[in-house]
Design goal:
alpha/beta; five-stranded mixed sheet
């Protein structure tokens, strides 16, 4: 397989099936993780919608919590499945609410032109990119507990600070990225090679926005990690990205990106129909 898509989803099963259909080519494979906390009907609907396909593989389900280490665990579980099936040239991390802005064959061609490279948004911490305390360093200085919350906020142990694991530097960026085969192997080996750092990340706030960047930028692969993203994502303020509607079409079409996030068919299905017609050549 030339490209593997690792897709993490928790709702909108029909939208997930549509995403897989749009990205299907003879040389792609899909690794689908449905949140273990998602209602059973979501998982059953997705399984039914993708039944009979030998290019779709099911990642063991992890109960996932917002901003928690369980998100990293779900990614690693997916990458492990990718490696077991035969690591492709690139693995693309998507959510169930992503959607392509270019035809699948063009996406494959674009990635084929970047052999051995990972495409990962990255910035060293502290950074003005994050509005957290101390440019995001508060995410690692304190111990956070993903299943202990107050008014939706993840709670942390106050006062007791900790140091970043030796030999690593804190990097942040988007959780949605493209990984080379070597990067997949490096990320999977990290658990066994650095159990101390793996344990450290268990108490980091929103670690899925740091894990890939920190591991790869602290590895011999750092010069093969391009600081770029294949996603168009907009942050209007707060902790959630914009949900695109038909009013955003022209901006998405002009973005030059391979994918965009996020979409919600329950809010506006026409935007996906228009992308199909005018950008993907569907229908």
């Amino acid at each position: 397989m030339a490209v593997a898509y690792l897709i993490r989803a928790h709702h909108r099963p029909e939208q997930l099936v549509r995403l897989v259909e749009r990205l299907t080519t003879p040389t792609t494979s899909f690794f689908v993780h449905v949140d273990g906390r998602a209602p059973g009907v979501v998982y059953e609907t997705v399984r039914a919608g993708l039944a009979g396909r030998d290019d779709v593989h099911w990642v063991p389900r992890v109960d996932s919590y917002y901003s928690g280490f369980s998100l990293v665990r779900s990614v690693v579980a997916g990458l492990d499945e990718v490696q077991r099936k035969g690591t492709p040239a690139h693995t693309v991390l998507l959510s169930g609410q992503c959607y392509p802005l270019r035809p699948a064959a063009e996406i494959e061609s674009a990635l084929a032109g970047r052999p051995g490279e990972s495409l990962v948004e990255r910035f060293h911490l502290p950074s003005e990119r994050w509005a957290d305390e101390d440019g995001g360093l508060d995410r690692v200085r304190y111990r956070y507990f993903e299943r202990v919350r107050f008014r939706t906020r993840t709670l942390r142990l106050p006062l007791l600070r900790r140091s970043f694991p030796a030999g690593l530097e804190p990097w942040g960026g988007s959780a949605w990225c493209v990984l080379s085969g070597e990067a997949v192997a490096t990320l999977l080996a990290f658990h066994h090679e650095r159990p101390d750092a793996w344990s450290f990340f268990r108490r980091v706030k929103t670690p899925d926005e740091m894990f890939v960047q920190t591991v790869l930028m602290s590895s011999p692969l750092r010069d093969r990690v391009a600081n770029e993203t294949v996603h168009h994502i907009e942050w209007p303020g707060g902790s959630h990205p914009r949900t695109f509607t038909s009013a955003d079409f022209d901006r998405l079409a002009a973005s030059g990106k391979l994918f965009a996030r996020k979409f919600d068919v329950a809010r506006d299905a026409e935007i996906l129909d228009r992308i199909d017609r005018e950008l993907l050549g569907e229908g």
